[in-house]
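Give me C-alpha cells for this 228-residue protein.
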Amino acid sequence: MVERWRKETHCFNFREGECTITLRDIAILTDLPIDGDVVCVDSTPPPKVVANMSGWQHFIWTVTGLCPPEKGDHDADGHPPLSKGQVSITWLTAEIRRKHNPEFGGIPLTEESSERDKDIYARIHILGMIGGVFFLKKSNNLISNSWLKIILGSWDDMGSLSWASACLAHLYRSLCNASARAVKEIDGAMFIVQFWAWEHLPWIAPKVDPDKEWGPDHPLRHETYGCM
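Here you go.
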C-alpha cells in the first residue's frame, strides 16, 4: 500500500485508477468525531514554577499526579521516562498500575475511588490512545509532551475537537514520508490502512465465517466498524 501511495495527490495508485482514505472512512472505522474545532498542539515548554521540578515535570505531575525523573531511571523498553520533550507512556502506565495494584501496596481503582484518581486514570488512558494508537510515532512508546496540554483541558473541550480530521492529516503525512525511497520505517495509525484495504480490496481481506452472525448483540460487535 505504501509503495502505491503518491504524495503529490494523496492517493493510492492502482491499475484500475486512484482511490484514497477519506474522512468518512476514518469516522466509520474508528468512530472518531468529524465535527469540531481543529486539533492544535502547542509545543512551547511550560515555565518552571517549582524549584525542584522542570517545567515539563511539573506539568506532567499536574495532569497525571506522577513526576517522571529526567535522569537515572529507564522504562521497560530502555527509554528514560522524560527526554527531549517526550514522556514514556510505558513508564506512565506502569506507574499508574503500580499505584492501583494491591500487590505493590497500591489501592485498587473502584467506584468508590476519588474523582481525582478516576480523572487521572482516564486521562492517561486517553494519552495512551493518542500516542500509541492514532498518532503513533516511530519511537513507539514516547509521546510528545505537547499532547498533555490538550489532555489537561476540560472533558467538554477535548470532546469538541475534530479528532478524525487530525488523525487523517497525520496518516497522510506518515504515508507521504514513508513513500520516500530511502525510508524504511513508518509511523501513524497503520491499522486504519489495513482495515481500509481489507474493505476496498476484498481479495486480500481475511475470510469471514458466513455462518457467524455479526448482529448488534454479538459480543465481538462494538460501536466501531473497525472492531468487526
